[in-house]
Each structure stands twice: as C-alpha cells, then as structure tokens.
Design brief:
This protein is about 0% helix and about 45% strand. By secondary structure, it is an all-beta fold. The chain has a domain of about 80 residues: Sandwich (Jelly Rolls). The strands form 2 sheets. Strands 1-2-9-4-7 form a 5-stranded antiparallel β-sheet, with no helix packed on it. Strand 1 and strand 2 form a beta hairpin. The relative contact order is 0.25.
Length: about 120
Amino acid sequence: MKSKQLLDDLEFHDPVPFAQPLLVDQHSRILRWMLKPGQQIGEHQVPDFPFYVVVIKGRGMFAGADGHEREFGPESLLIFEPGETHTVRALDEALVFISFLQSVDSMRPDRTGGEIGRDHE
C-alpha cells in the first residue's frame, strides 16, 4: 500500500495553476491541482473516460458542459462525463483539488463474482 498526505507540501505557481502528478500509470492518472486566488483553467474537454474531482481546500467556480459556473468547496465531489467540456476558477483563496481519471473496463468481475459498473436485474 502507498499513501499520500493531500495537503502536505502544496506548491503554487505563477502565472498558471500547477498540476502535480500523484499517480500516473497505464490505467489511471491522479493529479493534485493547486490554484492561487483568481487563477483559472480555461475551457477544455475531459478525455473519453469519466473524470472525477474532489475539492480538498478553498472554494472555486466549476462549470460543466452547460457553461454555468457553480461554487464548490471542501468535501465536494464533481463527476464529469466522458468528453465533457469544463472550466475551473479559484475565488479569493487558494483552491486545491484532486482529479481522478481512469480507463477501466466497466464490466470487470468484482470479488463476489458479480459485475462492477453494470446494473443488476
């Protein structure tokens, strides 16, 4: 087992946000994003896999495919669909969030012999 302390050794850069890889392998990518107050990540698309964000510090404005910004803070989970366009903007305090991207087979067997990611009848 490996572990990381998510708020240790935060590193903020000028003039753009900093994305620090916490895990990168052939199946997944976990990044810690650090934005100074007012910094933003311009409009871009999620790859062809679901994309998850967990806010761990500060408050920011996040917009999804509809372009409507909404404020989120610590303990918020955001779920973006494959290919969804989105933006991020830190408010008047530093914003730190973790992003998770996985490319996994949604039909792999779980440990009980069932299937993960598939509705059961």
